[in-house]
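The instructor's notes for this session suggest beginning with a concrete chain rather than abstract definitions. Hand out the sequence below and ask the class to guess, before any prediction is shown, which regions might be ordered.
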Amino acid sequence: MDKINELFNLWKERATGDPDLINELNFIENDENAKSEAFYKDLEFGTAGLRGIIGAGTNRLNIYTIGKASQGLASYVNSITDNGSIAIAYDSRIKSDVFAIRSAEVFAANGIKVYIYKELMPTPMLSYAVRALKCDAGIVITASHNPAKYNGYKAYDNTGCQLCPEAAEYVYNIMEKVDAFDGVKSIDFEDGLKSGIIEYISDDTYNSYIEKVYEQSIAKDIDYSTVSIIYSPLNGTGNKPVRTILDKIGLKNLTVVKSQELPDGNFPTVPYPNPEIHEAFNEALKVAENVDADLLIATDPDCDRVGIAVKTNGEFKLLSGNDVGVIMLNYILSRRKELGTLPQKPLAVKTIVTTELIKKICKKYNCELKEVLTGFKFIGEQITALAEKGEEERYVLGFEESYGYLIGTHARDKDAVVASMLICEMCAYYKTKGKTLCDVLDDIYREFGYYFCVQKSFTFEGQSGLKKISSIMSNLRNNPPKTISDINIKNFKDFEKSVSLNLIDNSSESIDLPRSNVLGFYLSDGSSVIVRPSGTEPKIKLYIGAIGETDASCREKLKNLLDSGMELLGV
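After discussion, reveal the predicted structure:
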């Protein structure tokens, strides 16, 4: 505790730039556990940037840890170019605007031109701005769908993708050497605006983004007059751009959930603002009691994820990220083939934890499928690689099971604005055929077989939590099971060691993907169990994929595999 108390005393003396930090430090002064959690380590900067609890301390997100990260990123930009530039966006979370301004002040002091949105904007609009403004990097202040006590700092390179591991390591190494109080350069934000080194991003960039999204509509002659949608921005950034694009495609019967319409970083109506959970739709369901809607849509605070609930048999059914992605890819490929707009060699991208059903759909339409590690930056890298070969038009869809989709190449990150547009288009199109999106999903299952998936997350907070997660992964890696739920494991893949072991014939082969702390168990019947610690949260995640010939048999298998998977983790 000596080191922790030393740091605490230093912060009490020097962390005077934010009254909230002064109050918090006074509050925890006699709480040894609280001090330990706040100071036992530094927040780590990785490919997903920073994410942490807002508050005082080296292991918390505040103007000082934000300053260190920005100093590190500024040093990186200055190491690769002269007269560099950076774009900045921020969401509705607590202190997002404060952290965005702090970052701008640091970048400007390091001689880097800053373009900053003058109001909160979605993450995909940051990715778009980086490329549209020809910036060398970009950041967005957000903690995505985490609880209100969190915020974060996502960093992007000049392609609009999140930083590669090498760049992230460079930034982290600089951060480790920078003194939070004396080593961070800074100028006054208003002075930066006056001198021109800080500049607000113009409405032209916003408008051009909306046009690029609109271009991704598959068919622009669809009749939306009979479709009714209820939309919730979950108190985040989606309110303006999602409503703008839905109006542009001709959707007039749109009802916005008033209690979740305006920005509010406390997210008072939900336990946490994640469109993956049922609670995110509780307010929309109340609205649906008085509005005859076909569909409920919710976007997370930085509007890169979208979830939906479909009215079927008089009730609303929440679809999973895999469900929506499957419907989306099937719609894009079938409709574009019908309309003659499908490229000769279409290409789709999915992550390794996303449903295997995608492979069947791709095979039907002769669509090449690329599989990448979890993290949308890897999907973005595939688009960049296509662009470098002059084959950008081949890309049709990239998606991950955690409700992230990108149609089009205007961004290099998941985009809930364009996804919301296409979801409404699909709803309207299939309604003319007398079908709901649930009916369409059932049709796909009947054609290709039943593929049901579930993801469970288990949270382990603090120092003890990190050790627990590490212990679980180490045990599974060194003592992999031979069976799961009485089904033989055919392949055991250790993505950190880049090796795939065939447990039937004891052969092995390398995995042609970057190393990642992920373990995959692929069963003899085609089902799978994948274990992965989160890169941004104190969680370990369990991904189950079951395959069956009928709805009932597949659901039973999914339940058994989940029970066995939880047993493996000891949770």
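Then share the key points. Residues 294 and 311 are 5 Å apart (CA to CA). The first helix runs from residue 2 to 14.
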